[in-house]
UniProtKB/TrEMBL annotation:
GO terms for molecular function: metallopeptidase activity; peptidyl-dipeptidase activity. It comes from Arenimonas terrae. The keyword Thylakoid does not apply. Disulfide bonds join 148-154, 379-397, 564-576. This is Peptidase M2 family protein. One of its GO terms (cellular component) is membrane. The active site is at residues 411, 539.
Length: 645
């Protein structure tokens, strides 16, 4: 999801990078020309406008993401154009008020308006129009992206991901072809992206910032200039843990693939089971520390459930033999939808178990839970506040596997955050910062211990042994620890692109230099400037800032620790499961209710007692695994050489 604090402080969902507007373009100037209002009156008008325009903005964006075609792109771009013009006028007016001597809420709202644009738009109407068209086109190109080989059916992201995920069944070359195939989709984006950078930088400068990256760094209730050092500090805390995991993983890949398992000590990009090497969960069969200490095969259990649903539907219909080919397709689809709904309700029950409200009926009728067969959609998961009053939706192409199940828990975190802060005026309807928004659902995922998974019938009752602990820690680390450097490097690349230190003719080289530096990951074959590999990751064409996810992967362990304390948990942190604990639920909801109404440091303090983001909870959680990894890596030459350009 994408939480955008633009104009109206709308916390908008994923593809909503591009927000839209409220009034016809010819009326938008009236905002700038409005009779001089007091700051309080101005903020009240912005809030009122936000309430009015949000449904139109979100509907246009929803259409753009769930019916990709020329018409929806036109509607989406036009809506954005109106919205962004209005937003610019509001930002200009916000800048005219003094920052001192105001009512605290008004001062905060004005501040949020000035730092909240993730898509800074130029004032020049022709350039604004061009920007919104590029934005829609980039999003649509990603959503409709396919790997096509002559004489074969084209494959979409779901199909490519399935090939990569099958790290046991597929060969080195099959995975390499799939990985390279997906990276063809972004080649046509390069020119658009370059222009996109120029246009948003112009908008950023007009807003008083050096470039778009600086706008992004300004949204954290601290000087933008200090933010990079803050992120570096957090990375420094967890980097040794990542390096141990990287080393162990690479050694296992070398055991399996020989020389091909490593590129100068780095992990080949197509071998991690994930297109971007951000989640190594699909390497479980290779990396599982111990056999026979109880299966943690959640994917296997989910697939079985889906097959059982299908079998029941088929039997009710009189058996497969009675069905025509097209009826068979329909019934498969019905099974997919029933399974996706069941998985979503399972996630919902975690939240309601904490005392949070049931999702509104419209959530289930209006969400997109499975991939439609008749059109292109943006499958990348997102959660949407359709208005400012609690109409919420999710957009996903759910498949029965563990990664998707945890993504549902993640998305519902966004949804419950929307519901918790909806009583605020729209300007404060947002996360404390964007990393908080990303961390809500993931904190719940940390509570999905083997005991919890057993309680919902997804794994057998877990063994109690040191080996079982290491297995369970490894499972979590493959999702959480592997992610950390990826969460950092994407915006290191974009910040450089926006500030000009990465020139357009070095886009790809800089991308791989950063992948090498932070992740210790490398492509099997050199990737020249004929490619635009950054564009093959949703958030780049989708213009969603990414440091939020890095922050979330630190914060979620802090949240988890606090909620475990609230639940009276005793024992090692990693054994805590706060499911069904009302005290944890109350504390969490109280934090979420704050929204963006106060600096995040205050909100963090109310939940955790501290005002700083801090990686020590990550280290506390993974202490047993880290010690185990150090032992496994003894005598190995860890580390890698990032080839210098
Ligand atoms: O984009 C997402 C969510 C929507 S906010 C599905 N995530 C990042 C990603 O997929 O790259 C969640 C974790 C990281
Ligand atoms: Zn998210």
């Amino acid at each position: 999801m994408k939480s955008q604090r633009a104009l109206l402080a709308l916390a908008i969902s994923a593809s909503l990078l591009a927000l839209s507007a409220c009034k016809p373009a010819d009326q938008t100037d009236s905002a700038a020309d409005a009779p001089k209002e007091s700051a309080d009156e101005f903020v009240a008008r912005v809030n009122k406008t936000a309430k009015e325009v949000t449904p139109e903005i979100t509907s246009a964006a929803w259409l753009g993401a769930t019916y990709i075609n020329a018409d929806s792109q036109r509607v989406e771009a036009a809506a954005n154009e109106r919205y962004l013009a209005l937003n610019n006028a509001f930002i200009e007016q916000a800048k005219t008020y003094p920052t001192e001597g105001l009512n605290a809420d008004t001062a905060r709202a004005l501040h949020l308006m000035k730092v909240g644009a993730s898509l800074p738009a130029p004032r020049d109407p022709a350039k604004l129009k061009e920007l919104t068209e590029i934005t829609s086109r980039l999003g649509a190109t990603y959503g409709a992206g396919k790997w096509c080989v002559d004489g074969q059916e084209c494959r979409d992201i779901g199909q490519v991901s399935e090939i990569l995920a099958d790290t046991q069944g597929k060969s080195y070359d099959e995975m390499k072809a799939a990985w390279e195939g997906w990276h063809t989709i972004s080649v046509p984006m390069r020119k658009d992206y370059q222009r996109f950078v120029e246009l948003t930088n112009e908008g950023a400068k007009e807003m008083g910032f050096a470039n778009t990256g600086e706008v992004w760094r300004a949204g954290y209730d601290m000087p933008a200039a200090d933010f990079q050092a803050e992120a570096d500090r957090l990375w420094g805390q967890v980097q040794p843990l990542y390096e141990q995991l990287q080393c162990y993983t690479r050694e296992k890949l070398v055991e399996k693939y020989g020389e091909q398992g490593s590129v100068n000590g780095m992990i080949p990009a197509h071998l991690t089971g994930n297109l971007w090497q951000q989640d190594w969960g699909n390497l479980w069969p290779l990396l599982q520390p111990y056999d026979n200490v109880g299966s943690l095969d959640v994917t296997g259990a989910l697939k079985k459930q889906r097959e059982a649903i299908l079998a029941e539907l088929v039997s009710k219909a009189g058996g497969m033999g009675k069905l025509t080919a097209s009826e068979q397709v329909e019934i498969e689809r019905q099974a997919d939808l029933e399974m996706a709904t069941r998985m979503t309700k399972l996630a919902e029950s975690f939240y309601t178990g904490l005392g949070m409200p049931a999702l509104p009926e419209s959530f289930y009728t209006d969400s997109m839970l499975v991939q439609p067969r008749d059109r292109d959609v943006v499958c990348h998961a997102s959660a949407w506040p359709m208005n400012t009053e609690g109409e919420v939706r999710m957009k996903m192409c759910i498949k029965p596997n563990e990664e998707e199940l945890t993504t549902i828990y993640h998305e519902l975190g966004h949804i419950y955050y929307y519901l918790a802060y909806k009583q605020h005026p729209p300007m404060f309807q947002n996360g404390a910062h964007d990393g908080f928004h990303e961390a809500i659902g993931d904190t719940i995922v940390l509570s999905m211990t083997p005991e919890y998974l057993a309680s919902i019938g997804l794994v057998d009752k877990p063994a109690v042994s040191e080996e079982a602990v290491i297995n369970s820690q490894m499972r979590m680390a493959l999702a959480k620890v592997s992610f950390l450097p990826f969460g950092l490097m994407i915006d290191r690349w974009r910040w450089g692109v926006f500030d000009g230190s990465i020139a357009p003719d070095k886009y790809n080289q800089a991308w791989w230099d950063l992948k090498a530096k932070y992740q210790g990951v490398a492509p099997a074959d050199a990737r020249g400037e004929e490619f635009f590999d950054a564009g093959a990751k949703y958030h780049v064409p989708g213009n969603t800032p990414y440091t939020r996810y890095f922050l979330s992967h630190i914060l979620q362990f802090q949240f988890y620790k606090s909620l475990c304390d609230a639940a009276g948990h005793e024992g090692p942190l990693y054994t805590c499961n706060f499911a069904n604990n009302p005290e944890a639920g109350k504390r969490y909801w109280a934090m979420m209710e704050r929204g963006a109404s106060q600096p995040w440091q205050q909100t963090l303090k109310e939940l955790t007692g501290g005002e700083q983001m801090d990686g020590s909870a990550v280290l506390e959680y993974f202490a047993p695994l880290q010690a185990w990894l150090v032992k496994q890596n003894e005598g190995k030459t860890c580390g890698w050489q990032a080839a210098k350009s």
